Amino acid sequence: MPNNHYYNVIIVGGGISGTALLYTLAKYTNIKTVALFEKYNDIATLNSNAKGNSQTLHCGDIETNYTLEKAIKTNKTATMVENYGKLYGYENKYMFKIPKMALGVGDKEVQFIKDRYKEFKDAFPYMEYWDKAKLAEIEPALLKGRDANEDIAAMGTDKRWSAVDFGEIAKSFVRNAKKENSDIDVYLSKEVEKIKKIGNKFEVIVEGKPYYSDYVVVNAGAHSLLLAHQMGHGQNFSCLPVGGSFYYSKIDSLKSKVYTIQNPKLPFAAIHGDPDIIHDNTVRFGPTAIVLPKLERYHHAHFLDFIETLAPSKEVFEVFYDLMYDDDIREYAIKNFLYEVPGIRTKLFAKEVQKIVPFITEDDIEFADGIGGLRPQVIDKVSKKLFLGEAKIETGEGIVFNMTPSPGATSCLGNAYKDAELICDFLGAKFKKKKFNKELVNEK
After folding, report:
1. Do 1 and 207 contact (CB within 8 A), yes or no?
2. Taking the CB of residue 56, how many other CB atoms lie within 10 A of it?
3. In angstroms, rounded to a whole number, what is the distance separating the alpha carbons of residues 289 and 118?
4. For the chain, which domains are there?
5. pLDDT confidence of residue 444
6. CB-based burial of residue 355 (10 Å sphere; 0-12 exposed, 13-18 middle, 19+ buried)?
7. pTM above threshold 0.90
């Protein structure tokens, strides 16, 4: 096989996860030759792009659907991203300190915030409890137009780098990786069509042309499961692509990231408001959540690819039935479908926004065309449940498939660490863990 087509590692996918791994291999291992293939003409054009997500570094401190244990783990990976940004001077360039909070509305939710703050304050000592009077100072938009008898409270902070342009961070991973290792090749506008194992190597077919490697990592969103299925891996998984949309505020409203309390029954994010760091600080509200029969939100729908990753079966339909049998989930699904329907969506969604900003009307918001992404929610057909969080198919044969719904961007370096461990163990390469931990985890 030609040397210029052979690599120690091939990475499929140029989003935040694939580029984080590229950077980790370049700086913290002695692996020589690495290639990354991205099918579009630039890095991070889909979910990692600032238009495709809420631009939030999820630390677990305001995500009310996280257990304390999950929050602590997520905070560790979030800290890696913060430390990476500090290492290269990206403060106030690609990451920003915007106040953030989890907001409780009404007596029941206020009590929830009080209890959660007590539970979390030791693990997150920078977090503060903000009562109604304090919130009137910090974020007056939360009180304007609200019933004077309705209590609100929040747990929040202004001390974290809470807003991140993950698309620019992904591009920086590539630039910095190339500075560390001149034997890195990044191929843009090159779509991986098929992967085959030949002996102890892998043949990666890109537009009909073969490339070879000792190890392959697929970080291609919903397409990761498609490629896995084509190789006979991950047959116990199905992919449920969930699209998210946002609405822009046309008036001055929030200065903070404001998250509402998650209904524990619902598998998707509760509505939140976020000052948009790439759109003149206009506030975005969302996301909606709607199942779409495609693997990418704003590109040509490959319906047969969707069917192949969904892999319809008795178990999959049982999961759908169980989800829709629940009144709360069924109502949520119907409402989110209507939030996408022109003519009625703005009026309906304004009612959701009013929980955060009471004085908002339908005339004050507009559907944000082309803003939002698609997350590959994974169904485990064995447990017959929707799998929330990152899913990994580790074959033990020299190939890994990663599917990273939210908070995949936050976890990019944490996931890269795990994959670098697998790769170095498999190839007998050296992983400079102490250096990684010193620079990115703050471990001595």
Report:
1. no
2. 24
3. 31
4. 3-441 (3.50.50.60)
5. 42
6. buried
7. yes
SS3 317: helix
Among 49, 62, 424, which Cα is nearest to 257's? 62
Q: Which residue has the tokens 């009612």?
A: 351
Query: Is the Cα dihedral 10, 15, 17, 20 positive or negative?
Result: positive
β-bridge mates for residue 366, sequence order: 248
d(CA 81, CA 54): 16
Per-residue pLDDT reduced to its tens digit, 114-166: 999 999 999 999 999 999 999 999 999 999 999 999 999 999 999 999 999 99
Encoding tokens for residue 20? 């984080």
Reported as a single tens digit per residue, the pLDDT across 249-275 is 999 899 999 999 988 777 677 899 999
DSSP labels, 254-313: -SSEEEEPPPTT-SSPPPEEEE-TTTTTPEEEE---EE-SSSSTTS---HHHHHHHH---
Distance CA 319, CA 197 (A): 33
